[in-house]
Amino acid sequence: MDRATLVGLDKQHVWHPYTAMEQYIAKTDPLVIVRAEGVWLHDADGRRYLDANGSWWVSTLGHRHPRLVHALTEQLGSLAHVSLAGITHGPAARLGAELTALAPGADRAGVPSEQKLSRVFYSDNGSTAVEVAIKMAAQYWAQNGRPRRTRFITLTGAFHGETIGATSVGGVHEFRDVFGPLLFDVVHVPSPAEPDGHARALAEVKAALAADPDGIAGVILEPVLQGAAGMWMSSPDFVREVREATRAVDTFLIADEVFTGMGRTGARFAVDLAGVMPDLLCLAKALSGGMLPFAATLASERIFQGFLGAKDRALYYGHSYCGNPLGAAVAREVLAVYRDEDVLGQVQRKAPRVKAAFERMAATLPGLVRPRAVGMVGAVDLGGGGYFADSGWRVYEAARRRGLYLRPMGNTVYIAPALNIPDADLDLLLAGVEDSLREVAAG
Ligand code: PMP
């Protein structure tokens, strides 16, 4: 089918995420991608684009890493899907063992076994990984003598997903306000990434815990890097301090590492930068290397034990595709590739170049503010304007003409490419971002 016909069908039938459709149908000439390999997207016109954001941050090993393709096809040859109801299978069981062995603190001596993240609950995507954590925490408290513990503390700018529970604990107005009446009540505290935010955020977390120690089910946060807020970054110290505050009143810390997990910050998990073990850890996106939807929520042994003993203590949760063998097999191979290709080492080696490039852009081009970077994420803001202001789109267009697929979030221009991006492609990417910004800055 030719390109024009495809675009016609798309515009007639497909409703795109986070897209104002009238404008899209009238004005957008979408990329029609026919193939992707490594960091490159190939379109129907024979052009290629460097994927600056790893396809909404999932593609940490590049598109169609040969070992992941192989693992997927191998698994497809024997078992594509079966429910985990009274059944188990190799990929789910073995991945469970491998993930918990890599979990924060797993190899630390002297950690009480009840604090270890020794249990895994599988689901399909980042939102459900968070939803699982919310329900696990709430049900744990309900059946372990603290039934009033139903409120969560969350940060301004937090993004935890699309489902109603995950939206409820979110803190970006644009994403939650329209659903306001449907959302449950949470305690919002400022983000540590806001100017002078760290001390204020910590004080408000402590105050909220002190005000209602019997009512707080947990604190949920994206450690170190709040992605969808606009790549807001903060010190690992904040995570450590919140951990101490939650331990002081014996409530939970939920780390949403859907974006930051699996090496994005240069550590395997962002909480590792703080030396912190959360009670619940949410993973998705990179867990299956951008191959297919798959997610996991790691839970402490204490939480798991809270579901044993009495007659009816099933966690009231389960999706059709929980523990899907294809996803689990690919995730196992993702872990193996990280080990064999020293992906974390690669990020640590390349990260200073990303940071230096964004700092240079902000220092040399007009109108750029707040250059920042952590691991394989670099970002800078276009000065002035609201969240959905226009200049981000001008950067997108300028980048597209240069063979870069770069989608700013509002006025934040950022990159979050594959962690194993080859050096030469990283050079191309950084130069392309700089050139695109220069073009837009020139007006
Ligand atoms: N949590 C965080 C921190 C995220 O960045 C995202 C997605 N951007 C989600 C949860 C939701 O993940 P998904 O889109 O896979 O549902």
Topology overview:
Layout: H1 3-13, H2 21-27, E1 33-37, E2 40-43, E3 48-51, H3 54-57, H4 66-76, H5 90-102, E4 119-123, H6 126-143, E5 151-155, H7 164-168, H8 173-176, E6 187-189, H9 197-211, E7 216-221, E8 225-226, E9 232-233, H10 236-248, E10 252-256, H11 270-274, E11 280-283, E12 295-299, H12 301-305, H13 325-340, H14 343-364, E13 368-374, E14 377-382, H15 391-401, E15 404-405, E16 412-415, H16 423-441
Parallel strand pairs: 3-15, 5-6, 5-7, 7-10, 10-11
Antiparallel strand pairs: 1-2, 2-3, 4-12, 8-9, 11-12, 13-14, 14-16
Helix pairs in contact: 4-13, 5-13, 9-10, 14-16, 15-16
The structure holds 4'-deoxy-4'-aminopyridoxal-5'-phosphate.
Residues 125-127, 130, 159-162, 222, 227-228, 256, 258-259, 284 line the site of 4'-deoxy-4'-aminopyridoxal-5'-phosphate.
Average predicted confidence as pLDDT: 95
Strand content: 15-25%
Radius of gyration: 22 Å
CATH architectural type of the largest domain: 3-Layer(aba) Sandwich
Low-confidence stretches: none
How is the main sheet built?
Answer: 7 strands, mixed
What is the H level of CATH, i.e. the homologous superfamily of the largest domain? Answer: Type I PLP-dependent aspartate aminotransferase-like (Major domain)
What's the CATH first level of the largest domain?
A: Alpha Beta
Alpha-beta content class: alpha/beta
Described by its quaternary structure, the protein is: single chain
Number of DSSP-assigned strands = 16
Supply the number of helical segments. 16
Q: How many angstroms separate the termini?
A: 38 Å
Neighbour order of strands in the largest sheet: 4-12-11-10-7-5-6
Bound molecules: 4'-deoxy-4'-aminopyridoxal-5'-phosphate
| Fold-level CATH name of the largest domain | Aspartate Aminotransferase, domain 2
Helix content: 40-55%
Shape: globular
